[in-house]
Amino acid sequence: MQHQSTEPTATQQAAETLDGWYTLHDFRRINWTELKKLDAAKREEMIAEFQQFLAQMDEVEAKKEGSHALYTVIGQKADLVFMVLRPTMEEIQDVELSLQKLALYEYLIPSYSYVSVVELGTYRGSGEGDPYENPYIRERLYPTLPKSKHICFYPMSKARRDNDNWYTLSMEKRKELMYRHGLIGRSYAGKIQQIIGGSTGFDDWEWGVTLFSNDILQFKKIVYEMRFDEVSAKYGEFGEFFIGNILPSEELPRHFAL
Ligand code: 76R
């Protein structure tokens, strides 16, 4: 029989989070069957409209009022992922609506989505003064997404099992474990850029992890290395993984050409 603790569990202190831009990952499958029925001119027209839309999104990004990224997805879970960051959930919804109104989106079937808010933990403290005024923190909370060659996305949660429950660990213990997580993470500086989206209460998992790299093998290396770290080994629970390659706007005609 499994050991059941009869001790009442003390309520632990939640780590304070710093919250930045709201985030949507919109995964789509290309309906090639229907696209193939269209003549080239119609397809080109739809691509041009989509490129125009992306150009508008680029302007928002240039003004530092949001960011976005378009990547392919390898394998059968999806064909494309469009990641969007905006200051409010209303703006996220506006972008989602605008996408759905594009002609091309009639041929892009929803296959998965993830909603979160860019999150920084404060296990290491958040420095002097108002963290939201700290330029280093602001850059991380309101990031312009890198134009890296590859993306990796997966949702995850921290375990709430009887014996391995992240949420009943003391603040001190979590601090210590997160310190070691951070050490592994920082050994990938310059190779991987990560964005952690907090999604407790927003979506089905507790965090959405987005990694960017110019070397796709680094995704395997960091995730594998972290599996041995206590935070992931004992407490990590993972959803589906998606990886893909950047799809620049100017590549779209070639991508959709038959
Ligand atoms: O400052 C520090 O020392 C730690 C900063 C830090 C926090 C608070 C940090 C650093 N992470 C934090 C929080 Mn992370 N991270 C992941 C994954 O696949 C897996 O096993 C885990 C997925 C990766 C790959 C990764 C990478 N991190 C978190 C949280 C929230 C936890 C909570 O609040 O309870 C999750 C779910 C999570 C998961 N992390 C880093 C990285 C990398 C590369 C770094 C160092 C980079 C940097 O400091 O900029």
CATH architecture: 2-Layer Sandwich
Secondary-structure class: alpha+beta
- Quickly name the level 1 CATH class: Alpha Beta
Computed CA radius of gyration, to the nearest angstrom: 20 Å
Shape: globular
Mean pLDDT: 95
Uncertain runs are: none
CATH topology: Alpha-Beta Plaits
Q: Span from first to last CA? A: 61 Å
- Number of DSSP strand runs: 9
Tell me the number of structural domains: 1
List the helices and strands and how they pair.
Layout: E1 17-30, H1 32-35, H2 40-62, E2 67-72, E3 80-86, H3 89-101, E4 108-121, H4 135-141, E5 150-158, H5 171-186, E6 193-198, E7 207-213, H6 217-227, H7 230-235, E8 236-238, E9 242-245, H8 252-256
Antiparallel strand pairs: 1-3, 1-4, 2-3, 4-6, 5-7, 5-8, 5-9, 6-7
The chain binds ligand 76R.
The site of ligand 76R has 24 residues, from β5, α5, β6, β7 and α6.
Describe the protein in words.
The protein is of the alpha+beta class. The chain has a single domain (17-255), classed as 2-Layer Sandwich (Alpha-Beta Plaits), CATH 3.30.70.1030. It contains eight helices and nine strands. Strands 1, 2, 3, 4, 5, 6, 7, 8 and 9 form a nine-stranded antiparallel sheet that branches. A hairpin with an 8-residue loop joins strand 6 (193-198) and strand 7. It is globular, with a radius of gyration of 20 Å. The mean pLDDT is 95.
